[in-house]
Amino acid sequence: MPKRPITSYFTAAPSKKPKLSLHSDLPPSTHPSYPFPIACLPPSLELSSTKPVEKDNNEKDTNEKDTNEKDTSGENANEKDTNEKVPNEKAPNEAPEASKTTNATKPPTQEEIPPTAITHKQDLSILHYHPFLHTSLSKELFLFLRKQLPFYRVEYRIARAGVETNVKTPRYTSLFGVDAISYFHPHSGELLDTKSKHPVPPDRYRCSPRPVPQCVEMLRQYVAKRTGCSYNFVLINYYADGNDSISYHSDDERFLGENPAIASLSLGSRRDFLMKHKTVPALTHTFPLPSGDLLLMRSTTQSKWLHSIPKRSSSSSTAGDSTASWAGGGRINITFRNALERGGTENYYCYNIGSGPVYRWDDVSGKMVLKA
Ligand SMILES: O=C(O)CCC(=O)C(=O)O
Ligand SMILES: [Fe+2]
């Protein structure tokens, strides 16, 4: 099918809200573990891009901390001096990539913008791709994924100080993938053992692992290529508004191996990503992440630091954020991880899918609704 420009997918409707065409020539991805078929990426969302990155004048340069924010730590002082641009820096296990140069007379494409290395704070090693996807692509992807993916509002019980407590996850979550000891047959979707290539024993997992659907798989492959790391899990968070959050934690589970590389892509409304050192309280760092940014967390970032997305007030939520009009305060975060052991699969499906009902985005009411 010939490529169509993004604009051809919008009708000249009287409504100011653009309507995204979900048309793709490919049939939707299906699997017995999916609650409904998941559409394939429309051609307008082709990820690899030669399009120059547009500069949105309404948006502040979010590489720097919002000056309205209280900064008691002095954490961002001299960041411009200490953060380096690292064209073609190699992450662990990274495949060699052709070197790219930026033509000074032409705005760079998203693939030509080198990430910034945040390595000047003790035990912290992050590559910040600002942006990873250009704004219009991140917008289309946000609208597409919010509409097409199944989401959950997981509740679980844990013992806190010896008392059984019910925890309600304060955001929507979704998940695809399986750990390294198993894989899905690319055509039948059957779960196979990595070593023997035979079907996995039925008691290997208590959950039903889900293969990555085409629309997310395209993204997984693209992120793997640009970050030089491999990932077998895709975890998706949807923060509906400033009330949704994730509290301080680190993704340092044993099943991810030592010093895991985790890529984290932001789509939609800007939210602050807060970090603090586990044992040196004065050490903190804040990324105000706009749509299209990606953080590649590496080395001791998980073992030594915590991160969170705090709740925020609705007034602070839209200030200076031009995505507010199309994201309506919503934000999708996608993390790409590599789990080495069976325990990763059990853990991730338990906490990101759970056993509750499925939600799906509804364009009419403009919110997630329970699927009957
Ligand atoms: O939403 C984010 O940027 C962070 C999500 C996160 O930390 C996680 O899912 O483990
Ligand atoms: Fe995390």
Automatic annotation (TrEMBL):
Fe2OG dioxygenase domain ranges (all copies): 230-340
Here the segments flagged for biased composition (Basic and acidic residues) are 52-92
What is the residue range of the signal peptide feature? none
Instruction: Specify residue ranges for compositional bias: Polar residues.
Output: 99-108
The UniProt GO MF terms for this protein read:
broad specificity oxidative DNA demethylase activity; cytosine C-5 DNA demethylase activity; ferrous iron binding
**Superkingdom of origin organism:** Eukaryota
Coiled-coil spans are none
**A Pfam family the protein falls into:** 2OG-FeII_Oxy_2
Name a single GO biological process: DNA alkylation repair
Region of interest (Disordered), ranges: 1-114
| Residues that bind 2-oxoglutarate | 237, 239, 249, 252, 307, 331, 335, 337
PANTHER family per record: ALPHA-KETOGLUTARATE-DEPENDENT DIOXYGENASE ALKB HOMOLOG 2, DNA OXIDATIVE DEMETHYLASE ALKBH2
What is the name of this protein? Fe2OG dioxygenase domain-containing protein
Organism (species): Morchella conica CCBAS932
